[in-house]
Amino acid sequence: MNQFSPDSPAIGRISKQKSWIVQRLNKPRGYINPYTDTIRDMENKSAQEIVKEVFTPDYMGAAEYEFGRLPESMARMFDNADKLSLNLFELSIIKSEFPDLKLDPDKSVQDLLNDLPGEKKKNIFIVCYENNLGTIKDHILKHYHQGYINWQWMNYLGTKKMAKANGIEYEESAKRDYGSFYLRVHKHWRDNDLQGWYDVENDFAWFINKKMAHLFFKLFDGERFKGWD
User: Fold this and answer.
1) What span, in angstroms and rounded, lies between the C-alpha atoms of 37 and 32?
2) Tens of pLDDT, residues 2-36
3) N vs C: which end of the chain shows fewer Cβ within 10 Å?
4) For the whole model, what pTM was predicted?
């Protein structure tokens, strides 16, 4: 696993204002698709066999997610496993998807979100370096809120082109992501297989599925999984 040479920023800092290369993680299928599954990028076959029982990477349709990006990140996390922690985060869910407000291009995204108090909470499970937890929560919130804003724009205005014509800046939540976190939380995603999101630039992941989060965290336990070496 650790034969991959990391080329990302050093452990212990978050490199971007928001998460951009975020790999969607689906329920494990128990096998590796030889064409689209980036688990196959791991040179260690034992590691492949272990990881495929924990999650299946969704096909992202962009080169930024390929060519060893996933195993490089996992190798860094494995080498720094003593700094990792599993954390519970209560996400405030926007209580109404179509509140009685009109999206105003003169308002900032944050102004709009301030008008949308959440009443419900959803448990989110985060695997990350402990010293980055606060920043990572902010990244996850940005991901969720941008997904909400995009969903609203698409429903009010119909298309990104119309949004732009109305002076509204449409922004992807992450590269080829389509606002999947927001859509999954609110049951608009295409299926129920999607359970987690993995920022392979900044080496952290979050899940709506507690069991998958625990299994992902245990992947970096060198005593339990000897197959990494």
Assistant:
1) 6
2) 433 344 444 455 666 778 889 999 999 988 887 78
3) C
4) 0.82
